[in-house]
Amino acid sequence: MSKKLRLGMIGGGQGAFIGAVHRIALQMDGEYELVCGAFSSNPEKSKASGELLGLKPERVYTSYHELFERELQLPEDQRVQVISIVTPNHVHFEPAKLALENGFHVVLDKPMTFTLQEALELRKVAEASGKRFCLTHTYTGYPMVKEARQVVASGKLGKIRKVYVEYPQGWLSRFEEGSDNKQASWRTDPNQSGIAGAMGDIGTHAFNLAEYVSGLSVTKLCADINIVVEGRQLDDDGAVLLKFDNGASGVLIATQVAAGEENNVKIRVYGEHGGVEWQQSDENTMLLKWLDKPVEVWRTGTGYVSSYAQHNSRTPAGHPEGYLEAFANLYRNFALCIQADLAGKEPQPEWLDYPGMEEGVRGMAFIEQVIASGKSDQKWTNFSI
Protein backbone atom coordinates (compact mmCIF):
# COMPACT_ATOMS: atom_id res chain seq x y z
CA MET A 1 0.00 0.00 0.00
CA SER A 2 1.13 3.54 -0.70
CA LYS A 3 1.98 5.74 2.24
CA LYS A 4 -0.38 8.54 3.13
CA LEU A 5 0.34 11.84 1.42
CA ARG A 6 1.66 14.46 3.82
CA LEU A 7 -0.62 17.51 3.75
CA GLY A 8 -0.34 21.01 5.15
CA MET A 9 -3.17 23.51 5.52
CA ILE A 10 -3.15 27.28 5.09
CA GLY A 11 -6.11 28.95 6.79
CA GLY A 12 -8.98 27.03 8.35
CA GLY A 13 -8.22 27.76 12.01
CA GLN A 14 -10.60 27.87 14.95
CA GLY A 15 -14.10 28.95 13.96
CA ALA A 16 -13.53 28.58 10.21
CA PHE A 17 -16.38 26.59 8.66
CA ILE A 18 -14.71 25.50 5.44
CA GLY A 19 -11.43 24.50 7.11
CA ALA A 20 -13.23 21.88 9.20
CA VAL A 21 -15.04 20.60 6.10
CA HIS A 22 -11.75 20.20 4.23
CA ARG A 23 -10.20 18.30 7.14
CA ILE A 24 -13.12 15.87 7.34
CA ALA A 25 -13.03 15.36 3.58
CA LEU A 26 -9.29 14.77 3.30
CA GLN A 27 -9.27 12.26 6.15
CA MET A 28 -12.33 10.26 5.10
CA ASP A 29 -10.49 7.77 2.88
CA GLY A 30 -7.16 7.62 4.70
CA GLU A 31 -5.20 9.02 1.76
CA TYR A 32 -3.65 11.97 3.65
CA GLU A 33 -1.99 12.82 6.94
CA LEU A 34 -2.25 16.41 8.18
CA VAL A 35 1.32 17.16 9.26
CA CYS A 36 1.63 20.95 9.37
CA GLY A 37 -0.23 24.20 8.92
CA ALA A 38 -0.43 27.97 9.11
CA PHE A 39 -4.03 28.19 10.24
CA SER A 40 -4.50 31.92 10.79
CA SER A 41 -2.93 35.30 10.10
CA ASN A 42 -3.03 35.65 13.90
CA PRO A 43 0.05 33.72 15.15
CA GLU A 44 -1.51 32.85 18.51
CA LYS A 45 -4.66 31.56 16.85
CA SER A 46 -2.61 29.49 14.40
CA LYS A 47 -0.67 27.90 17.25
CA ALA A 48 -3.83 27.22 19.24
CA SER A 49 -5.51 25.65 16.20
CA GLY A 50 -2.54 23.38 15.57
CA GLU A 51 -2.56 22.28 19.19
CA LEU A 52 -6.25 21.37 18.99
CA LEU A 53 -5.51 19.32 15.88
CA GLY A 54 -2.74 17.42 17.67
CA LEU A 55 0.10 18.61 15.45
CA LYS A 56 3.71 18.85 16.58
CA PRO A 57 4.30 22.44 17.81
CA GLU A 58 7.36 22.86 15.60
CA ARG A 59 5.21 22.24 12.49
CA VAL A 60 2.55 24.80 13.31
CA TYR A 61 3.58 28.04 11.66
CA THR A 62 2.71 31.70 12.12
CA SER A 63 2.46 32.43 8.37
CA TYR A 64 2.44 30.56 5.09
CA HIS A 65 5.79 32.12 4.24
CA GLU A 66 7.27 30.47 7.33
CA LEU A 67 5.55 27.19 6.42
CA PHE A 68 7.24 27.01 3.03
CA GLU A 69 10.61 28.15 4.37
CA ARG A 70 10.69 25.65 7.24
CA GLU A 71 9.17 22.69 5.39
CA LEU A 72 11.74 22.98 2.60
CA GLN A 73 14.47 22.55 5.22
CA LEU A 74 13.14 19.11 6.16
CA PRO A 75 14.31 15.89 4.47
CA GLU A 76 12.23 15.05 1.40
CA ASP A 77 10.68 11.99 3.03
CA GLN A 78 9.37 14.14 5.90
CA ARG A 79 8.34 17.43 4.33
CA VAL A 80 4.81 18.22 3.26
CA GLN A 81 3.71 17.11 -0.23
CA VAL A 82 0.25 18.67 -0.67
CA ILE A 83 -0.89 22.15 0.38
CA SER A 84 -4.59 22.77 1.07
CA ILE A 85 -5.52 26.48 0.95
CA VAL A 86 -8.78 27.40 2.70
CA THR A 87 -8.41 31.17 3.14
CA PRO A 88 -10.70 34.01 1.99
CA ASN A 89 -10.44 34.82 -1.72
CA HIS A 90 -7.86 37.60 -1.42
CA VAL A 91 -5.38 35.12 0.12
CA HIS A 92 -5.62 32.46 -2.60
CA PHE A 93 -3.17 33.52 -5.26
CA GLU A 94 0.11 34.11 -3.42
CA PRO A 95 0.16 30.95 -1.25
CA ALA A 96 -0.95 28.82 -4.22
CA LYS A 97 1.75 30.34 -6.41
CA LEU A 98 4.44 29.84 -3.76
CA ALA A 99 3.31 26.26 -3.13
CA LEU A 100 3.51 25.32 -6.81
CA GLU A 101 6.84 27.11 -7.31
CA ASN A 102 8.31 25.23 -4.34
CA GLY A 103 7.25 21.83 -5.64
CA PHE A 104 4.03 21.13 -3.76
CA HIS A 105 0.70 19.92 -5.13
CA VAL A 106 -2.20 22.27 -4.34
CA VAL A 107 -5.83 21.92 -3.30
CA LEU A 108 -7.51 25.33 -3.38
CA ASP A 109 -10.95 26.48 -2.33
CA LYS A 110 -13.01 28.30 -4.97
CA PRO A 111 -13.14 30.82 -6.54
CA MET A 112 -9.56 30.28 -7.61
CA THR A 113 -8.20 33.80 -7.18
CA PHE A 114 -9.14 37.41 -6.50
CA THR A 115 -9.02 38.45 -10.18
CA LEU A 116 -8.96 36.82 -13.61
CA GLN A 117 -5.46 38.18 -14.18
CA GLU A 118 -4.23 36.32 -11.09
CA ALA A 119 -5.90 33.14 -12.37
CA LEU A 120 -4.15 33.39 -15.72
CA GLU A 121 -0.81 33.91 -14.01
CA LEU A 122 -1.43 30.98 -11.66
CA ARG A 123 -2.19 28.75 -14.64
CA LYS A 124 1.24 29.57 -16.11
CA VAL A 125 2.90 28.81 -12.78
CA ALA A 126 1.08 25.48 -12.50
CA GLU A 127 2.03 24.45 -16.04
CA ALA A 128 5.69 25.25 -15.36
CA SER A 129 5.69 23.43 -12.02
CA GLY A 130 4.50 20.04 -13.25
CA LYS A 131 2.49 19.68 -10.03
CA ARG A 132 -1.16 18.76 -9.74
CA PHE A 133 -3.86 21.28 -8.85
CA CYS A 134 -7.40 20.68 -7.55
CA LEU A 135 -10.14 23.29 -7.13
CA THR A 136 -12.90 22.31 -4.71
CA HIS A 137 -16.07 22.64 -6.76
CA THR A 138 -17.80 20.27 -4.36
CA TYR A 139 -20.95 19.44 -6.28
CA THR A 140 -19.13 17.71 -9.13
CA GLY A 141 -18.11 15.10 -6.54
CA TYR A 142 -21.62 13.69 -6.12
CA PRO A 143 -22.03 10.24 -7.74
CA MET A 144 -25.28 11.15 -9.49
CA VAL A 145 -23.86 14.41 -10.83
CA LYS A 146 -21.13 12.30 -12.41
CA GLU A 147 -23.81 9.94 -13.70
CA ALA A 148 -25.71 12.86 -15.25
CA ARG A 149 -22.52 13.94 -17.02
CA GLN A 150 -22.02 10.41 -18.37
CA VAL A 151 -25.62 10.18 -19.61
CA VAL A 152 -25.23 13.47 -21.50
CA ALA A 153 -21.84 12.43 -22.90
CA SER A 154 -23.27 9.12 -24.12
CA GLY A 155 -25.47 10.96 -26.61
CA LYS A 156 -28.68 9.28 -25.37
CA LEU A 157 -30.37 12.64 -24.99
CA GLY A 158 -29.36 13.81 -28.45
CA LYS A 159 -28.07 17.31 -29.07
CA ILE A 160 -28.30 19.41 -25.91
CA ARG A 161 -30.71 22.35 -26.22
CA LYS A 162 -31.38 23.77 -22.75
CA VAL A 163 -29.50 24.04 -19.45
CA TYR A 164 -31.10 25.34 -16.24
CA VAL A 165 -29.05 25.66 -13.06
CA GLU A 166 -29.96 27.36 -9.82
CA TYR A 167 -28.42 27.90 -6.41
CA PRO A 168 -30.84 29.54 -3.94
CA GLN A 169 -29.78 30.51 -0.43
CA GLY A 170 -31.50 32.69 2.14
CA TRP A 171 -28.87 33.20 4.83
CA LEU A 172 -28.05 36.79 3.74
CA SER A 173 -31.67 37.98 3.65
CA ARG A 174 -30.74 40.35 6.46
CA PHE A 175 -27.69 42.58 6.91
CA GLU A 176 -25.70 39.82 8.62
CA GLU A 177 -22.36 41.56 8.04
CA GLY A 178 -23.53 44.19 10.51
CA SER A 179 -23.37 41.63 13.32
CA ASP A 180 -20.59 39.35 14.56
CA ASN A 181 -20.91 36.95 11.61
CA LYS A 182 -17.46 36.17 10.27
CA GLN A 183 -18.72 34.30 7.19
CA ALA A 184 -20.98 37.18 6.19
CA SER A 185 -18.34 39.80 6.93
CA TRP A 186 -15.65 38.56 4.57
CA ARG A 187 -17.97 37.23 1.86
CA THR A 188 -19.64 40.64 1.47
CA ASP A 189 -16.41 42.67 1.70
CA PRO A 190 -14.96 43.60 -1.73
CA ASN A 191 -11.48 43.83 -0.19
CA GLN A 192 -11.62 40.15 0.74
CA SER A 193 -14.16 38.61 -1.62
CA GLY A 194 -13.42 40.50 -4.83
CA ILE A 195 -15.82 42.20 -7.24
CA ALA A 196 -18.65 39.69 -6.73
CA GLY A 197 -20.71 38.52 -3.77
CA ALA A 198 -23.32 35.86 -4.52
CA MET A 199 -22.05 35.34 -8.05
CA GLY A 200 -18.53 34.68 -6.80
CA ASP A 201 -19.56 32.61 -3.80
CA ILE A 202 -22.28 30.36 -5.26
CA GLY A 203 -22.72 31.55 -8.85
CA THR A 204 -19.35 30.03 -9.72
CA HIS A 205 -20.58 26.66 -8.40
CA ALA A 206 -23.68 26.88 -10.59
CA PHE A 207 -21.62 27.90 -13.62
CA ASN A 208 -19.16 25.06 -13.08
CA LEU A 209 -21.99 22.56 -12.67
CA ALA A 210 -23.67 23.72 -15.88
CA GLU A 211 -20.52 23.24 -17.94
CA TYR A 212 -19.54 20.00 -16.18
CA VAL A 213 -22.83 18.15 -16.64
CA SER A 214 -23.62 19.47 -20.12
CA GLY A 215 -20.08 19.00 -21.42
CA LEU A 216 -20.51 22.37 -23.14
CA SER A 217 -18.72 25.71 -22.82
CA VAL A 218 -20.41 29.07 -22.33
CA THR A 219 -19.68 31.49 -25.17
CA LYS A 220 -21.96 34.45 -24.31
CA LEU A 221 -23.87 35.68 -21.28
CA CYS A 222 -26.35 38.35 -20.27
CA ALA A 223 -26.63 39.18 -16.58
CA ASP A 224 -29.04 40.93 -14.23
CA ILE A 225 -27.13 41.55 -10.96
CA ASN A 226 -28.74 43.01 -7.84
CA ILE A 227 -27.94 44.24 -4.35
CA VAL A 228 -31.20 43.59 -2.50
CA VAL A 229 -30.27 44.20 1.15
CA GLU A 230 -29.72 47.86 1.90
CA GLY A 231 -26.15 48.80 2.82
CA ARG A 232 -24.55 45.72 1.25
CA GLN A 233 -21.49 46.36 -0.93
CA LEU A 234 -21.62 43.30 -3.21
CA ASP A 235 -24.34 41.51 -5.17
CA ASP A 236 -26.59 39.17 -3.22
CA ASP A 237 -28.86 38.14 -6.10
CA GLY A 238 -28.69 37.61 -9.84
CA ALA A 239 -29.81 35.77 -12.94
CA VAL A 240 -27.79 35.06 -16.08
CA LEU A 241 -28.85 34.03 -19.58
CA LEU A 242 -26.28 31.73 -21.18
CA LYS A 243 -25.33 30.70 -24.72
CA PHE A 244 -23.24 27.55 -25.23
CA ASP A 245 -20.78 26.52 -27.92
CA ASN A 246 -23.21 24.08 -29.59
CA GLY A 247 -25.98 26.70 -29.86
CA ALA A 248 -27.84 25.65 -26.71
CA SER A 249 -29.18 28.27 -24.33
CA GLY A 250 -29.45 28.30 -20.55
CA VAL A 251 -30.44 30.14 -17.42
CA LEU A 252 -28.41 30.46 -14.22
CA ILE A 253 -29.87 31.77 -10.96
CA ALA A 254 -27.80 32.47 -7.85
CA THR A 255 -29.28 34.27 -4.86
CA GLN A 256 -28.56 34.57 -1.15
CA VAL A 257 -31.74 36.46 -0.32
CA ALA A 258 -34.32 33.71 -1.02
CA ALA A 259 -35.61 33.63 2.56
CA GLY A 260 -36.13 30.10 3.81
CA GLU A 261 -33.85 28.45 1.26
CA GLU A 262 -30.77 26.53 2.37
CA ASN A 263 -28.40 25.09 -0.26
CA ASN A 264 -30.54 23.20 -2.76
CA VAL A 265 -28.40 23.59 -5.85
CA LYS A 266 -30.24 22.06 -8.82
CA ILE A 267 -29.49 21.37 -12.48
CA ARG A 268 -31.57 20.28 -15.46
CA VAL A 269 -30.13 19.52 -18.91
CA TYR A 270 -32.42 18.83 -21.87
CA GLY A 271 -31.60 17.34 -25.27
CA GLU A 272 -33.62 16.39 -28.34
CA HIS A 273 -34.89 13.13 -26.83
CA GLY A 274 -34.97 13.75 -23.09
CA GLY A 275 -33.34 15.35 -20.08
CA VAL A 276 -31.56 14.76 -16.78
CA GLU A 277 -32.31 16.41 -13.45
CA TRP A 278 -30.44 16.42 -10.11
CA GLN A 279 -30.80 18.42 -6.91
CA GLN A 280 -28.81 18.38 -3.69
CA SER A 281 -31.88 17.94 -1.45
CA ASP A 282 -32.28 14.45 -3.00
CA GLU A 283 -28.62 13.81 -3.71
CA ASN A 284 -28.85 10.05 -4.29
CA THR A 285 -31.34 10.46 -7.15
CA MET A 286 -31.00 11.43 -10.79
CA LEU A 287 -34.14 11.73 -12.91
CA LEU A 288 -33.92 10.67 -16.55
CA LYS A 289 -36.84 12.13 -18.49
CA TRP A 290 -37.90 11.00 -21.98
CA LEU A 291 -39.99 12.61 -24.66
CA ASP A 292 -42.13 9.51 -25.22
CA LYS A 293 -41.46 7.25 -22.20
CA PRO A 294 -42.02 7.40 -18.45
CA VAL A 295 -39.54 9.15 -16.19
CA GLU A 296 -36.72 6.92 -14.90
CA VAL A 297 -35.40 7.25 -11.33
CA TRP A 298 -31.70 6.37 -11.10
CA ARG A 299 -30.11 5.85 -7.70
CA THR A 300 -26.63 5.96 -6.18
CA GLY A 301 -25.04 2.65 -5.20
CA THR A 302 -26.83 0.54 -7.80
CA GLY A 303 -25.29 -1.84 -10.31
CA TYR A 304 -26.63 -0.07 -13.39
CA VAL A 305 -24.77 3.24 -13.00
CA SER A 306 -21.50 4.08 -14.75
CA SER A 307 -18.00 3.36 -13.47
CA TYR A 308 -17.67 7.06 -12.59
CA ALA A 309 -20.68 6.97 -10.26
CA GLN A 310 -19.64 3.60 -8.82
CA HIS A 311 -16.10 4.77 -8.12
CA ASN A 312 -17.39 7.80 -6.22
CA SER A 313 -19.87 5.84 -4.06
CA ARG A 314 -19.00 4.38 -0.67
CA THR A 315 -22.19 2.80 0.66
CA PRO A 316 -24.89 0.37 -0.54
CA ALA A 317 -27.95 1.80 -2.26
CA GLY A 318 -30.34 3.64 0.04
CA HIS A 319 -27.67 5.13 2.30
CA PRO A 320 -27.41 8.88 1.69
CA GLU A 321 -24.07 10.14 0.40
CA GLY A 322 -23.97 13.87 0.88
CA TYR A 323 -21.89 17.02 0.86
CA LEU A 324 -18.99 15.71 2.94
CA GLU A 325 -18.68 12.56 0.84
CA ALA A 326 -18.80 14.60 -2.38
CA PHE A 327 -16.07 16.85 -0.99
CA ALA A 328 -14.04 13.78 -0.01
CA ASN A 329 -14.32 12.39 -3.55
CA LEU A 330 -12.36 15.38 -4.85
CA TYR A 331 -9.60 14.79 -2.31
CA ARG A 332 -9.51 11.05 -2.94
CA ASN A 333 -9.33 11.31 -6.73
CA PHE A 334 -6.61 13.94 -6.40
CA ALA A 335 -4.63 11.68 -4.05
CA LEU A 336 -5.01 8.64 -6.32
CA CYS A 337 -3.59 10.63 -9.23
CA ILE A 338 -0.62 11.83 -7.18
CA GLN A 339 0.04 8.29 -5.93
CA ALA A 340 -0.08 7.03 -9.52
CA ASP A 341 2.42 9.72 -10.53
CA LEU A 342 4.74 8.70 -7.70
CA ALA A 343 4.50 5.07 -8.80
CA GLY A 344 5.17 5.95 -12.45
CA LYS A 345 1.73 4.74 -13.51
CA GLU A 346 -1.05 6.28 -15.56
CA PRO A 347 -4.03 7.44 -13.44
CA GLN A 348 -7.38 5.85 -14.27
CA PRO A 349 -9.91 8.07 -16.09
CA GLU A 350 -12.25 8.01 -13.07
CA TRP A 351 -9.45 9.36 -10.85
CA LEU A 352 -8.72 12.25 -13.22
CA ASP A 353 -12.31 13.45 -12.92
CA TYR A 354 -11.74 16.33 -10.49
CA PRO A 355 -11.94 20.12 -11.13
CA GLY A 356 -8.65 21.84 -11.77
CA MET A 357 -6.92 24.82 -13.31
CA GLU A 358 -9.12 25.29 -16.39
CA GLU A 359 -12.28 25.26 -14.29
CA GLY A 360 -10.67 27.85 -12.04
CA VAL A 361 -9.75 30.19 -14.89
CA ARG A 362 -13.21 29.88 -16.45
CA GLY A 363 -14.81 30.55 -13.07
CA MET A 364 -12.87 33.79 -12.68
CA ALA A 365 -13.77 34.81 -16.24
CA PHE A 366 -17.41 34.12 -15.37
CA ILE A 367 -17.22 36.42 -12.32
CA GLU A 368 -15.65 39.30 -14.20
CA GLN A 369 -17.92 39.06 -17.23
CA VAL A 370 -21.11 38.56 -15.22
CA ILE A 371 -20.42 41.68 -13.18
CA ALA A 372 -19.47 43.62 -16.33
CA SER A 373 -22.68 42.54 -18.05
CA GLY A 374 -24.70 43.41 -14.97
CA LYS A 375 -23.35 46.96 -15.02
CA SER A 376 -23.53 47.47 -18.78
CA ASP A 377 -26.39 48.66 -20.99
CA GLN A 378 -24.98 46.41 -23.70
CA LYS A 379 -26.23 43.28 -21.95
CA TRP A 380 -24.89 40.38 -24.03
CA THR A 381 -21.19 39.84 -23.36
CA ASN A 382 -18.91 37.47 -25.25
CA PHE A 383 -17.35 34.96 -22.87
CA SER A 384 -13.62 35.20 -23.45
CA ILE A 385 -10.42 34.44 -21.55
TrEMBL record:
<dbReference type="InterPro" id="IPR000683">
    <property type="entry name" value="Gfo/Idh/MocA-like_OxRdtase_N"/>
</dbReference>
<dbReference type="InterPro" id="IPR036291">
    <property type="entry name" value="NAD(P)-bd_dom_sf"/>
</dbReference>
<feature type="domain" description="Gfo/Idh/MocA-like oxidoreductase N-terminal">
    <location>
        <begin position="6"/>
        <end position="135"/>
    </location>
</feature>
<dbReference type="InterPro" id="IPR055170">
    <property type="entry name" value="GFO_IDH_MocA-like_dom"/>
</dbReference>
<dbReference type="InterPro" id="IPR051317">
    <property type="entry name" value="Gfo/Idh/MocA_oxidoreduct"/>
</dbReference>
<dbReference type="Pfam" id="PF01408">
    <property type="entry name" value="GFO_IDH_MocA"/>
</dbReference>
<dbReference type="Pfam" id="PF22725">
    <property type="entry name" value="GFO_IDH_MocA_C3"/>
</dbReference>
<feature type="domain" description="GFO/IDH/MocA-like oxidoreductase">
    <location>
        <begin position="146"/>
        <end position="276"/>
    </location>
</feature>
<protein>
    <submittedName>
        <fullName>Gfo/Idh/MocA family oxidoreductase</fullName>
    </submittedName>
</protein>
